[in-house]
Amino acid sequence: MSGTVPGTLRVSNDCIADLVGYAALECYGVVGMAEIDEQGSVVHLLPTYRLRKGIDVAAIGGTVTVDIHVIVEQGVNMSSVVGNLTSSVKFLLKQIAELENVEVRVHIEGMRTAH
């Protein structure tokens, strides 16, 4: 049975962050999510169960802003990785969370060799 169900969909920031984190891990060139320590000097690669620590979600007006902090694979074209990541996140949030106005900002915090 398919059809439109009347009502409003509300998605928490944590749920959005989880979706963004899993979309990021599927993108070519992304090694993982990054967390910057308290002093802002050391970057940590986050394990998969802590992905949302590397993602900031804010809803202002009718726009959802997503800041993604990633570590990329050494030698990749960073511009291509950012473009692919941005497209993947916007597509996923539109398909699953029905969010139309999404601004994605990618912060490359470091580079690592892939294991």
Report on the architecture of this protein.
With 115 residues, the protein is α+β, with helices and mostly antiparallel strands. The chain has a single domain (13-112), classed as Alpha-Beta Plaits (2-Layer Sandwich), CATH 3.30.70. The chain has 2 helices and 5 strands. The chain has helices at 13-25, 78-96, and strands at residues 30-36, 43-45, 55-60, 63-73, 102-112. Strands 1, 2, 3, 4 and 5 form a 5-stranded mixed beta sheet that branches. Helix 1 (13-25) packs across helix 2 (78-96). It is globular. The mean pLDDT is 89.
List keywords for this structure.
28% helix, single chain, five-stranded mixed beta sheet, Alpha-Beta Plaits, 115 residues, alpha+beta
Present the secondary structure layout:
Layout lengths: L12 H13 L4 E7 L6 E3 L9 E6 L2 E11 L4 H19 L5 E11 L3
Helix pairs in contact: 1-2
- The proportion of strand residues reads 25-35%
DSSP summary: helix tally: 2
Helix content: 25-40%
Question: How many strand elements?
Answer: 5
Give the name of the CATH architecture: 2-Layer Sandwich
CA radius of gyration is 15 Å
Mean pLDDT: 89
Tell me the span between the first and last alpha carbons. Answer: 45 Å
Low-confidence stretches: none
| Bulk shape | globular
CATH topology: Alpha-Beta Plaits
CATH class category name: Alpha Beta
The helix-and-strand class reads alpha+beta
Short description:
The protein is of the alpha+beta class. It has helices spanning 13-25, 78-96; strands at 30-36, 43-45, 55-60, 63-73, 102-112.
